[in-house]
Amino acid sequence: MLQCLLKLGDDCDPGRETGQAMEWVPEFTGVWPGKRMSARAPLSALTAWGVGGPADLVVQPANEEETERAVRLAVELGIPCRILGWGSNLLVNDQGIRGLVIRPSAGFSALEIAGDSVTAEMGVGLPVLARECARRGLSGMEFAIGIPGSLGGAVATNAGAEGSQMADVLAAIRVVRRSGVMEVRDARMLRFRYRHSALLEEPALVVSATLQLTGEEPGQVSERTRAVLEKRRRQPKGRSCGSVFRNPEGGSAGRLLEKVGAKGMRCGGARVPGEHANFVLAEGKTSASDILDLMRTLQERVLDETGTLLEPEVMFAGFEEGDPALPRGARVVREIT
User: Fold this and answer.
1) Which of 64, 189, 251, 304 is most buried, judging by how many CB atoms fall within 10 Å of its CB?
2) Catalytic residue among 36, 82, 98, 195
């Protein structure tokens, strides 16, 4: 999705009076070696829905060294630290996010291929990765061609489509813990399940991932990749995060939502399009509250009429666990541990 390269500018003054929570910003920006950073950064510009308030500070590391340093500085200053990724599967609170937000820069996207193994950095976009794998005749990432997210976020959430998921191809990851220590983890340590990994329970910042793919004739892999992309192109156009609810076991969230008349429902600027009942489009001056109101309404209607509780597929940032404003089963972006 959007890849804004933020710089500290006139409209993002770290000395702005924003309360005690901002006192650490000048100290951080004075010693962090990276150049891409923004105080009171409007996160609406960095998410697919285009909503959400500001973060105290957003930094965009360009390499592992800058990433480690950012996390260590957060620890030294005693501030919360979270990873944002591309914001393609995320709803940010209208009040924003306190503390430090780390987002990979466009340059943090190196890709190395050795035989059937691919190692890519956290900022590599899934469509870019899928196309390159297809070009090289490496099968396994065709499903990702239409997922508008970064590799780091895709690993953490076990992103998937068309019956495939990251867990099917992931071999290992390199992560930074809150201690600032770099670790290598085997994929088997991540306890993958549908749209979930251990990284959501004990967050660590994924800096790179190694995938084990299968060599095939490039034309065949490219053809399957094009077929997946063609299906994705038929999805609703506009500001959205894709499917908002996870499919229940053995069922389809979209079909359940359609059954209860979700298409066309609206709360403020948030609307369910007629093409797909499991999408929510943000139109005009939509707020995060509008989207939350609509998601709760949809969830309650499906539960009342079918007895099935649909759990959100999108993540939520800037909220506390158990916030009554959130739909049931909501997963909140936690601090890096």
Assistant:
1) 64
2) 195
Which CATH number is 207's domain given?
3.30.465.10
Domain count, the chain: 3
Check whether residue 129 and residue 209 sit in a common domain. yes
In the chain, alpha helices (H): 25-31, 64-77, 126-135, 151-157, 218-233, 253-259, 288-306
Max mean pLDDT range (62-66, 101-105, 215-219): 215-219
**Residue 21's pLDDT band (boundaries 50, 70, 90)?**
low
pLDDT tens digits, 159-218: 999 999 999 999 999 999 888 789 999 999 999 999 999 999 998 999 999 999 999 999
Q: For residues 72 and 49, give the distance between their C-alpha atoms in angstroms, rounded to a whole number.
A: 31
Q: Give the pair of three-digit tokens for residue 238.
A: 């506009």
Say whether 69 is catalytic: no
**Identified catalytic residue from 139, 208, 243, 287:** 243
Indicate if 125 and 69 belong to the same structural domain: no
| 162 has catalytic annotation | no
Residue 124: give the domain boundaries: 111-233
Q: Which residue has the tokens 């960095």?
A: 46
Look at residue 241 and tell me if it is in a domain: no
CA atoms within 13 A of residue 124's CA, in its CB half-sphere: 27
| Reported pTM | 0.90
Note the pLDDT of residue 233: 86
**Helices 218-233 & 126-135, crossing angle to 10 degrees?**
150
Average pLDDT (226-242) is: 93
Question: What span, in angstroms and rounded, lies between the C-alpha atoms of 42 and 277?
Answer: 29
Whether the predicted pLDDT of 146 surpasses 50: yes
CATH of the domain at 309: 3.90.78.10
Which run of H or of E encompasses 118?
Answer: strand 117-121
Same domain flag for 81 and 33: yes
d(CA 272, CA 256): 14
Say whether both 288 and 198 belong to one domain: no
